[in-house]
Amino acid sequence: MKKSLRLLTACFIIISLSSCKMGRFVYYNFANITDHKIFPYRTATNDSVKFTFEQSDSPKFPKMLTLGNTEVEFGKYLEDNKTVAFLIIKDDSIHYEKYFRGYDEAAVVASFSMAKSVTSMLIGCAIKDGLIQSVDEPITNYIPEFKNKEELSKVTIKHVLQMTSGIKFNESYVNPFGDAATYYYGTNLRKAIYKRKLAQQPGTAFSYSSGDTQILGLVLERALKGKKITEYLQEKIWKPLGMEYDATWSLDREKDGLEKTFCCINARARDFAKLGRLYLNKGNWNGTQVVPEDWVAASTTPDTTNGGVRYYKYQWWLEQNGNYAAQGILGQFIFVCPSKNLIIVRLGESEGNGNWEYLFNQLAEGY
After folding, report:
1. What is a single Pfam family found in this protein's UniProt entry (predicted)?
2. What's the pLDDT tens digit per position in 35-52?
């Protein structure tokens, strides 16, 4: 009898935990590129007309890499460092495409924070469509529910785009009681957003914050006035770019869920590469201006005023040589080198011991 009671109690605890943030954190422990399987989602469907990259007639990529005093085969280096997909695309032609660890071209991978760059694309589209008037609007124009509305009325859309909002957010991914866990595993993002407070004056310092991007997501949802963010992604990006596969965007909950705009677009390597191609071509896709050209320029040009930093702009990571990237935890990258008309996509189970930014730049120099 006692054994049965203990078993029932254990089952009750497990069931209870599974329905809350703590239960998800304890059970899943840490983010994984297969997390698209554990969250509810909405689907962005592709168009009947697909765009495909051509295979290069004379593919160029390094057979060997020199690391210190040793040489290692390129593919082995990628696999040993937990890569699941690696693409090199030059002048719209695939020079290298390889999958590892049981993955293939149809395998879905969670984007993690690469979704921040996509959220920025959609903000640019919403401004073009007149749904958002300006990046200088206060976020309280769209989120009046803030409990600290008066102090947060100083925060503009540009501040959260630049991550200079001054809004307090704990970015720790290992603290089950931290903000990142609440946003990733929690089931009420709107409620979590309403509780945000200022830690310092907006426009004074950069602080990387998934919280800022999720605020952008709620601003976008309100601007869309009933249309879901995933629907807008489908309309503005997924169909116009001729994606080869559907994508999903993870939600905080099944009923009336909000897209996790700070992360969690789930797609395939080739389709991630098309996002890079879109920005490489200044927002133009085969003659159609999908994202405003001035938005792409603003997103990839450093601005160090009002707390901004040289290496981050409008949810993209920037380099001094003009290259830029969308980047996610565990080593997800869409790397763009405009001077070489080059795109590199790397997806992985973790970063391994790879110095990926260095490798991307070294590869770019070889073209």
Report:
1. Beta-lactamase
2. 999 999 999 999 999 999
Residue at 19 is within a domain: no
Q: Which amino acid is at 21?
A: K
For 45, the token pair is: 């469907």
CB-based contact 220:139 (threshold 8 Å): no
18, 56, 43: which is closest to 229 by C-alpha? 43
User: How far, in Å, CA of 147 to CA of 167, rounded?
Assistant: 13
**CB–CB of 36/266 below 8 Å?**
yes
The reply to whether 23 falls in a domain is no
How many CB atoms sit inside 10 A of residue 83's CB?
Answer: 25
- The number of distinct structural domains making up the chain is 1
Backbone phi and psi for residue 363, each to the nearest 5 degrees, phi listed first:
-60, -45
For residue 126, the domain's CATH number is 3.40.710.10
Q: Which residues contact 151 (CB under 8 A, 6 or more apart)?
A: 197, 198
Task: Give a yes or no: residue 276 inside a domain.
Answer: yes
Please give the residue range of the domain that contains residue 323. Answer: 38-365
Domain contains 16: no
